[in-house]
């Protein structure tokens, strides 16, 4: 019970912190002091208190976008085990639901973008659609590998079964998997090198350009949803990368939080040291990720 | 009774010859056709015993052909009332007389068991049809008539020498010389195989060329293409069956001589060749009447294959006699309307028939669906019977060739018929006064209803008749 | 076990009567003078048939029994048996539902007043199509099956060419007719082989045949060709896109929603004959299925003709169903019952789902075309504002067909995924799990296609005047859509009941698998979780929406033009159109999807207006079949010289025949 | 008598060759007429005397020997054609083929069993050979007239065979013979006249408008 409460709290409160950490890291690399860690919280709160502007061309679909995006991510968060602790809701096959929930959110975000009738937003949603479609198989290969490793069909168990022990006999495939999943993580959350959350050239944007017309609370919701998504996918990733469990419940929570922050730092580092890719390169990298994951699957099934 | 069947049309011929009015003649003509059908039904319901020393016998095979011919003839006659009304520009005396003479000869073919007499009657039908093909009195029709006449005469001459061979075989075998089917069947065992085989070959080629089996069919597209619609219907639905009946008689003989295998194989191969020919010539056929001719080649091929296969397929063959002649009637009568209304039989001019002649167009379309063997029409029944029995006998290759050519034929016909009936009437197409009337649409409609009826339900008496006939052609074990 | 409460008429009789009623639905209209009366009567009769037939079918389904009636007909093919087992009953449901819905839709979509010439035929053949399909699933006599099959195909043809004045409609019609007839030829072979095997024209009883004799392989091939062509499995799909695109929309709904399923029914029925289907069959089905799914949706993503896109997505869905069936057969042949159970459940459920959301979408497309007068999505846009109700219903269909939770499309795919994963642990079939990523890719492409569809039709600003003046559809058009949308939502939110609905059919198809897998209760609970989460999702959205609307009440809300990123004169023509939306995807999947593009060359400082055209091409048809026909045509043209009109050569033919036969005889 | 009959048959064969070899229509018409007369005499040679026989002989000689040739002559004159120009197959090859077919027919006839009373006649080979010659004419000539001639020769061949059956089934034979005459003479004569009216020529190579393009 307590675990479920903690889980919920973390899911609700922690995500923006990651953004803060990433920003701080990048600032550090840039030799700046940077905004405080809690800056994202302030931003979201401020947005919630701002007025909003709606384009005259939009319909209710436009408003549904942020809502569904957040709702889906929130529900996905309920399926995702944090650290050694199983998820509040878990049943065999939940990983498929997990994957498809993001598709739902994406669908509505793209629809909302198209609803504005702006060519830029259309552009963004077209890119989003294609890239996420290419990212989809990678996630499934990962799920297959994990399911085979753990012999179970629910996220909590398959992720719980990735232990240092598992690394000993399935290291190769897990390594490939991590490569693939990290790329997916970056794509899905629109981080550099695939997308630049705070670029200012709409032509090169993917995700940000889709939400150009959202303002005020809506934009706040979107920001928060994005953070939550990063958090949930990140949780998935650290299960593979840092599968450490102490056995003590509270200690495990600590480990989890620590490793999430570490992940944030890593992402920050990547963003600082890498440049943004040209758009044409992105599909190739995605296919590469798929191939990595596929290899890991083949290694494990064989 | 038999005499009446033959004499009545002759009287009709005489009467129509004497009638001076072109408007009145077709009506009288139809009355005689009606009377003939009445007689036919009468004969079928209670069959008189063989008469004239076994020369005249009406057996099940004859009954089927007689029924088909008589019914088709009646519909053609009624159609002629409406059709000839539009052809007032020329006298229709020859047409009516020729048709009735042909009917009388046809009845003769169906009721006689004397092969010689049957041959004479067949030849008579050939001759009596010649002037009808020339009805339109133009260069093309005279050419068609010439080819029809010469090829069919040569064919029938070959049949004659075939009969001579048979007769001579009886002389050689020192049995009482005769061309009565029953005598021949009785003495078949004694006849010398050399003569009999030669006879079979000549008879097959002779009657085959009259029936239009490929490659003896070359007169067909010309004659059918140039003849008026109702003459075409009579040729394709009536005369073809008579020739087939002659082949059936030969088949009975072969059964008796226990040397059936060669004849069966010959039939199957010629039938398949006909179907393949039809498939080839049907593709991209721009002249819809010639297309019908090739379709007729296809269907005689189907009958020949079925006869050659034997077994259950015989039933299919016999049923196909009726199915084919009725469906052909629909097609030809409808095509006659279309031809007259557009004054062209080339699909480049003839488009949008459903617009100009809604009924004829619909009938032509329905006829096409029926003749290509789609349920719920009669030809489907026979064709499926044939195919399935081919598979049951393990004649897979035959069945596959059969099915593939059916499919190709369907495609070919579809590519001709569908653009014809659908779409808009092109501007450049000649506009005539010819439109659908009760008299020109009624008969094909009636035929179509029959085709449909036989496709979903075969009445009990007909069924027993078909089975009885099939029993006559059973290969004895 | 088969007993109904006294006082109730036998549901099988009711179903048959319902089938006959639908057949007669169009007949009064043929004779009534007043335009439209026939249409209304037809709706009434179709509704009546649905009210009789659907409950009857459900009753039979849950009775888990087979009711057989033998009627003696005057045809020489033995007795004609009509039987309804759970499988038939299951397939009866969409027939009656779509039949009624479609005819109701027609009243608004194809009003007799506006289409005097074509309405009668349309109504008549629509009824005929419905009843032929209803009788088809009951037929147990091969010949009767063929008859209903052909009547179905032909009436579908006549429905398709309703607007035969249009050239492309005629061409689509001929293509369809040729394809379907070729399929029927394969079926002739199929049934003849069965007759040769069993000696009776009745269809073999379930599990009565063995697949071992080599002849059975040809039976299977014939069935796959014949039924696959109707179902539209690649590469036998060539007729499908143009046919669905050019038919009136409620006809497309019927064809895509139900008629394709008849092909699948045939495959299902054929598989029931055999008690030992080899692994190969399952493998073939699986490969064919996944190919159709991938290629189909890839083509779909390239289309900008609204109905062609839907048609290709039908190919995709049929592909998914076939894959599921193939997987099930693999499981069946290798005695891994879980796989068999899940695959079959997925297949059946997806059949049900597709016959709900595809009609919904086609009817929706009908509404759109009715409003805008075009099928080209590049010319639409902004209809969501003008026809909000239709837009909402259409959205339901779109989400459902993308297989996204919480709607029904997801449920069936979910079951299929479960099946694929279930073989992961040390089973000989472990490798089929590799289908999962492929399916995921299909899902992603589906999202691309339908986002594009929905976006370019309903969202944004109108791209031409027709779209701008689009009007909301009438009640008769919205009600059927509403019905289907409702079903989609209900199945999506309460999948466990859907599983209960299909399980009788499942049990009758694979009794042992169901018995052994037996864990249907387990899957019930899993699906229960799904429905729980679905409701949770809705609740969360509602909560967020509530929160946001509360905020909005407090805060100032302005409305302005869409921000053009600094560009002030953003016009409707600058929006992303359908073609541009799928541009990236096409560039990525180049090779699978080909399109003929005309790119104008712009020169000078002020280039004159030019337009750029992208035409997605139908690869199989344009690269294989059409050339083949051309070759055959020229070959025939060459052979036709045999008929050259030279008399003396005709004579030679005759005597040559004579000689050859002579030589053969002796 | 027997030898006489055979000599007549040889004559018939020679006439076949003449009609195969000649290019002048009038001449080949006369040849066929002569053949007809001979065929008319033949029954008299092999059958005992009877009035019925006389009748037959008279009719045949009249028809085959005079009426038909007259009709054909008129047709030729009306169409003003003298000779068969460029046949589809040259005269020499035609003759050679004719010789070949004659030989073949003798061989063929040798295979078949004969009734004892006909053992030493050459009716069968003669009839087959004549048939074949008719077929050769039909297939190698252009003019409608020549084709009718070919048909008549073919008929003569059949008639020769019919002689073997004459006493067994007279009616049959006569019916056949007469019907063929009917076709050969009247119908074809009529058609030929129509043709010459339509095309102002009897060249059947012009009758090729009905064909598949």
Describe this structure in words.
The complex is a heterotetramer of chains A (302), B (477), C (666) and D (213). Chain A has 302 residues and is mainly alpha-helical. Chain A is built from twelve helices and one strand, in the order αααβααααααααα. Chain B has a domain of 219 residues. Helices cover 77% and strands 0% of the residues of chain B. Chain B has 19 helices and no strands. The longest helix of chain B has 34 residues. By secondary structure, chain D is mostly helical. Chain D is built from seven helices and no strands. In chain D, helix 1 packs parallel to helix 5. In chain D, 47% of the residues are buried. The mean pLDDT of chain D is 82. Classes of the chains: A mainly alpha (302), B mainly alpha (477), C mainly alpha (666), D mainly alpha (213). At the A-C interface, strand 1, helix 4, helix 5, helix 6 and helix 10 of A face helix 15, helix 16, helix 17, helix 22 and strand 3 of C.
Shape of chain B: globular
First-residue to last-residue Cα separation of chain B: 37 Å
Enumerate the spans of chain B where pLDDT stays under 50 for 5 or more consecutive residues.
none
The number of helical elements of chain B comes to 19
Distance between the termini of chain A: 40 Å
Integer average pLDDT of chain A: 89
Q: What's the SSE pattern of chain B?
A: HHHHHHHHHHHHHHHHHHH
Strand content of chain A: under 5%
Tell me the Rg of chain B in angstroms: 21 Å
How much beta of chain B, percentage-wise?
A: under 5%
Structural class of chain B: mainly alpha
Tell me briefly what this model is.
The complex is a heterotetramer of chains A (302), B (477), C (666) and D (213). With 302 residues, chain A is mainly alpha-helical.
List the helices and strands and how they pair.
The complex is a heterotetramer of chains A (302), B (477), C (666) and D (213).
Chain B: H1 2-18, H2 24-45, H3 60-86, H4 93-111, H5 115-133, H6 139-172, H7 181-187, H8 193-211, H9 219-226, H10 229-257, H11 260-282, H12 288-309, H13 312-342, H14 353-356, H15 358-371, H16 378-392, H17 396-421, H18 438-456, H19 460-472
Chain C: H1 11-24, H2 27-31, H3 37-63, E1 67-71, E2 80-84, H4 86-109, H5 116-138, H6 142-160, H7 167-198, H8 214-231, H9 240-246, H10 249-273, H11 279-302, H12 306-333, H13 337-372, H14 383-386, H15 388-401, H16 408-422, H17 435-458, H18 465-468, H19 475-493, H20 495-509, H21 511-517, H22 520-554, E3 557-560, H23 578-588, E4 595-598, E5 613-616, H24 619-639, H25 647-665
Antiparallel strand pairs in C: 1-2, 4-5
Helix pairs in contact in C: 1-3, 1-5, 3-4, 3-5, 3-20, 4-5, 4-10, 4-13, 4-19, 4-20, 5-6, 5-10, 6-7, 6-10, 7-8, 7-9, 8-10, 9-10, 9-12, 10-12, 10-13, 11-12, 11-17, 12-13, 12-17, 13-15, 13-16, 13-19, 13-20, 13-21, 15-17, 15-19, 16-19, 17-23, 19-20, 20-21, 20-22
Chain D: H1 2-21, H2 25-46, H3 51-79, H4 91-111, H5 123-140, H6 144-165, H7 170-199
């Amino acid at each position: 019970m307590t675990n479920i409460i903690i889980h919920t709290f973390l899911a609700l409160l922690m995500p923006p912190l990651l953004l803060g950490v990433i920003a701080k890291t990048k600032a550090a690399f840039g030799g700046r002091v940077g905004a405080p860690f809690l800056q994202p919280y302030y931003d979201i709160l401020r947005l919630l208190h701002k007025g909003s502007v709606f384009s005259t061309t939009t319909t209710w679909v436009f408003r549904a976008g942020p809502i569904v995006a957040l709702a889906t991510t929130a529900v996905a968060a309920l399926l995702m085990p944090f650290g050694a602790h199983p998820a509040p809701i878990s049943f065999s096959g939940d990983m498929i639901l997990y994957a498809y929930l993001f598709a739902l959110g994406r669908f509505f975000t793209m629809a909302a973008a198209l609803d504005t009738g702006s060519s830029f937003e259309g552009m963004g949603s077209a890119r989003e659609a294609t890239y996420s479609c290419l990212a989809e198989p990678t996630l499934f290969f990962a799920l297959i590998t994990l399911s085979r490793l753990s012999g179970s069909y629910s996220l909590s168990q398959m992720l719980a079964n990735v232990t240092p022990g598992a690394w000993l006999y399935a290291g190769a495939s897990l390594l490939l998997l991590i490569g693939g999943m990290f790329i997916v993580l970056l794509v899905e959350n629109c981080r550099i090198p695939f997308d630049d959350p705070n670029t200012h050239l709409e032509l090169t944007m993917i995700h940000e350009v889709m939400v150009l017309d959202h303002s005020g609370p809506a934009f706040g919701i979107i920001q928060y949803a994005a953070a939550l998504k990063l958090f949930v996918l990140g949780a998935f990733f650290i299960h593979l990368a840092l599968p450490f469990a102490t056995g003590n419940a509270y200690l495990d929570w600590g480990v989890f939080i620590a490793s999430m922050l570490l992940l944030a730092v890593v992402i920050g580092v990547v963003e600082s040291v890498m440049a943004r890719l040209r758009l044409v390169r992105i599909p190739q990298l995605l296919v590469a990720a798929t191939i990595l994951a596929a290899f890991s699957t083949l290694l494990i099934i064989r | 009774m038999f005499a009446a069947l033959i004499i009545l049309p002759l009287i009709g011929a005489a009467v129509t010859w004497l009638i001076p009015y072109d408007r009145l003649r077709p009506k009288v003509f139809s009355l005689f056709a009606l009377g003939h059908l009445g007689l036919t039904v009468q004969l079928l319901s209670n069959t008189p015993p063989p008469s004239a020393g076994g020369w005249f016998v009406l057996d099940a095979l004859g009954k089927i052909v007689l029924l088909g011919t008589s019914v088709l003839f009646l519909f053609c006659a009624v159609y002629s009332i409406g059709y000839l009304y539009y052809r007032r520009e020329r006298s229709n005396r020859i047409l009516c007389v020729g048709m009735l003479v042909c009917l009388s000869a046809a009845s003769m073919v169906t009721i006689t068991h004397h092969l010689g007499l049957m041959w004479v009657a067949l030849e008579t039908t050939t001759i009596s049809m010649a002037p009808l093909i020339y009805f339109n009195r133009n260069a093309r029709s005279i050419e068609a008539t010439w080819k029809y006449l010469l090829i069919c005469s040569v064919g029938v001459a070959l049949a004659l020498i075939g009969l001579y061979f048979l007769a001579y075989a009886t002389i050689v075998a020192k049995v009482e010389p005769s061309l009565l089917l029953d005598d021949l069947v009785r003495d078949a065992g004694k006849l010398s195989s050399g003569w009999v085989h030669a006879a079979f070959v000549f008879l097959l080629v002779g009657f085959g060329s009259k029936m239009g089996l490929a490659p003896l069919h070359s007169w067909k597209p010309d004659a059918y293409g140039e003849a008026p619609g109702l003459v075409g219907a009579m040729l394709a639905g009536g005369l073809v069956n008579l020739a087939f009946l002659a082949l059936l008689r030969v088949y009975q003989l072969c059964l008796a001589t226990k040397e059936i295998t060669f004849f069966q194989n010959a039939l199957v191969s010629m039938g398949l060749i006909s179907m393949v020919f039809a498939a080839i010539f049907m593709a991209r056929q721009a002249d819809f009447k010639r297309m019908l001719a090739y379709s007729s080649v296809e269907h005689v091929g189907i009958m020949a294959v079925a006869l050659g296969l034997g077994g259950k397929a015989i039933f299919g063959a016999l049923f196909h006699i009726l199915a084919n002649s009725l469906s052909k009637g629909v097609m030809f009568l409808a095509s006659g309307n279309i031809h007259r209304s557009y004054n062209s039989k080339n699909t480049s001019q003839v488009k949008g028939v459903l617009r100009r002649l809604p009924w004829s167009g619909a009938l032509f379309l329905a006829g096409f669906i029926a003749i290509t063997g789609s349920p719920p029409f009669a030809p489907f029944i026979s064709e499926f019977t044939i195919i399935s029995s081919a598979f049951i006998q393990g004649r897979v290759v035959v069945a596959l060739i059969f099915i593939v050519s059916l499919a190709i034929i369907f495609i070919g016909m579809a590519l001709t018929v569908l653009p014809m009936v659908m779409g808009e009437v092109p501007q450049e197409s000649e506009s005539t006064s010819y439109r659908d009337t009760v008299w020109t649409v009624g008969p094909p409609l009636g035929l179509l209803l029959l085709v449909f009826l036989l496709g979903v339900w075969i009445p009990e008496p007909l069924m027993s008749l078909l089975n009885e006939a099939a029993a006559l052609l059973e290969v004895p074990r | 076990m088969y007993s109904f409460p006294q006082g109730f008429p036998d549901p099988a009789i009711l179903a048959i009567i319902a089938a006959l009623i639908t057949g007669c639905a169009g007949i009064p209209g043929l004779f009534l003078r007043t335009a439209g009366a026939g249409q209304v009567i037809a709706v009434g009769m179709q509704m009546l048939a649905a009210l009789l037939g659907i409950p009857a079918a459900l009753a039979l389904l849950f009775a888990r029994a087979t009711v057989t009636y033998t009627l003696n007909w005057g045809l020489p093919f033995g007795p004609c048996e009509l039987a309804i087992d759970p499988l038939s009953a299951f397939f009866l449901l969409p027939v009656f539902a779509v039949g009624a819905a479609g005819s109701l839709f027609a009243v608004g979509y194809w009003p007799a007043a506006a289409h005097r010439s074509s309405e009668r035929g349309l109504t008549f053949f629509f009824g005929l199509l419905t009843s032929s399909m209803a009788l088809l699933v009951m037929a147990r006599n091969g010949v009767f099956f063929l008859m209903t099959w052909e009547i179905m195909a032909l009436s579908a043809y006549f429905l398709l060419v309703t607007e035969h004045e249009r050239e492309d409609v005629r061409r689509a019609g001929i293509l369809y007719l040729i394809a379907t007839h070729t399929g029927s030829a394969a079926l002739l072979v199929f049934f003849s082989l069965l007759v040769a095997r069993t000696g009776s024209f009745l269809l073999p009883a379930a599990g009565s045949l063995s697949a071992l004799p080599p002849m059975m392989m040809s039976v299977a091939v014939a069935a796959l060709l014949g039924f696959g062509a109707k179902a539209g499995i690649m590469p036998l799909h060539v007729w499908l896109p143009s046919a669905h695109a050019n038919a009136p929309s409620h006809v497309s709904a019927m064809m895509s929603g139900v008629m394709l399923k008849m092909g699948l029914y045939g495959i299902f029925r054929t598989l029931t004959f055999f008690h030992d289907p080899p692994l190969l069959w399952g493998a073939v089905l699986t490969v064919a299925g996944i190919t159709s799914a991938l290629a189909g949706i890839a083509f779909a993503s390239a289309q900008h003709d609204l109905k062609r896109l839907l048609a290709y997505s039908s190919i995709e869905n049929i592909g998914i169903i076939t894959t599921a069936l193939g997987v099930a057969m693999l499981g069946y042949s290798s005695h891994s019952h879980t796989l068999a159970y899940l695959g079959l459940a997925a297949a059946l459920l997806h059949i049900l789902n597709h016959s709900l959301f595809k009609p919904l979408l086609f009817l929706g497309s009908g509404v759109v075309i009715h409003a805008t007068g075009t099928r080209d999505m590049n010319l639409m846009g902004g209809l969501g504002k003008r026809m909000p109700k239709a837009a909402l219903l259409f959205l339901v269909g779109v989400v459902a067909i993308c297989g996204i939770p919480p709607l029904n499309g997801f449920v069936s795919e979910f079951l299929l995924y479960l099946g694929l994963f279930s073989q992961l642990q040390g089973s000989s079939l472990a490798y089929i799990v590799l289908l999962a990523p492929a399916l995921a890719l299909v899902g992603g492409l589906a999202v691309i296609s339908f986002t594009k569809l929905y976006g370019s039709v309903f969202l944004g600003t109108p791209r031409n005047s027709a779209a701008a003046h689009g009007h909301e559809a009438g009640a008769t058009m919205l009600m059927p859509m509403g019905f289907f949308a409702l079903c989609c939502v209900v199945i999506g939110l309460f999948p466990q009941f859907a599983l209960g609905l299909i399980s009788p059919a499942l049990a009758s198809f694979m009794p042992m698998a169901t018995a052994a897998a037996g864990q249907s209760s387990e899957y019930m609970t899993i699906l229960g979780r799904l429905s729980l989460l679905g409701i949770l999702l809705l609740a969360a959205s509602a909560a967020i929406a509530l929160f946001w609307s509360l905020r909005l009440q407090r805060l100032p809300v302005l409305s302005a033009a869409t921000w053009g990123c600094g560009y002030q004169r953003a016009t409707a023509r600058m929006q992303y159109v359908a073609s541009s939306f799928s541009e990236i995807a096409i560039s990525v999947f180049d090779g699978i999807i080909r399109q003929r593009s005309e790119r104008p060359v712009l020169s000078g400082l002020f280039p004159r207006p030019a337009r750029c055209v992208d035409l997605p091409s139908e690869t199989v048809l344009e690269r294989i079949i059409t050339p083949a026909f051309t070759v055959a045509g020229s070959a025939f043209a060459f052979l036709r010289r045999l008929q050259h009109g030279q008399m003396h050569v005709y004579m030679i033919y005759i005597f040559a025949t004579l000689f050859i036969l002579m030589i053969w005889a002796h | 008598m027997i030898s006489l009959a055979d000599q007549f048959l040889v004559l018939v064969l020679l006439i076949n060759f003449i009609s195969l070899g000649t290019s002048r229509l009038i001449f080949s018409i006369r040849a066929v007429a002569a053949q007809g007369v001979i065929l008319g005499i033949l029954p008299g040679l092999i059958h005992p005397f009877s009035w019925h026989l006389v009748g037959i002989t008279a009719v045949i000689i009249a028809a085959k020997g005079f009426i038909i040739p007259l009709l054909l002559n008129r047709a030729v004159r009306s169409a003003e054609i003298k000779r068969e120009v460029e046949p589809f197959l040259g005269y020499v090859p035609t003759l050679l083929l004719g010789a070949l077919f004659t030989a073949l027919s003798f061989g063929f006839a040798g295979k078949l069993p004969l009734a004892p009373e006909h053992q030493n006649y050459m009716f069968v080979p003669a009839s087959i050979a004549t048939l074949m010659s008719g077929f050769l004419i039909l297939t190698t000539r252009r003019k409608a007239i020549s084709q009718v001639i070919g048909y008549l020769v073919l008929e003569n061949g059949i008639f020769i065979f019919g002689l073997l059956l004459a006493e067994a089934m007279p009616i049959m034979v006569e019916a056949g013979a007469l019907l063929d005459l009917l076709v050969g003479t009247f119908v074809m004569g009529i058609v030929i006249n129509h043709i010459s009216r339509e095309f102002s020529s009897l060249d059947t190579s012009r009758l090729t408008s009905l064909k598949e393009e």
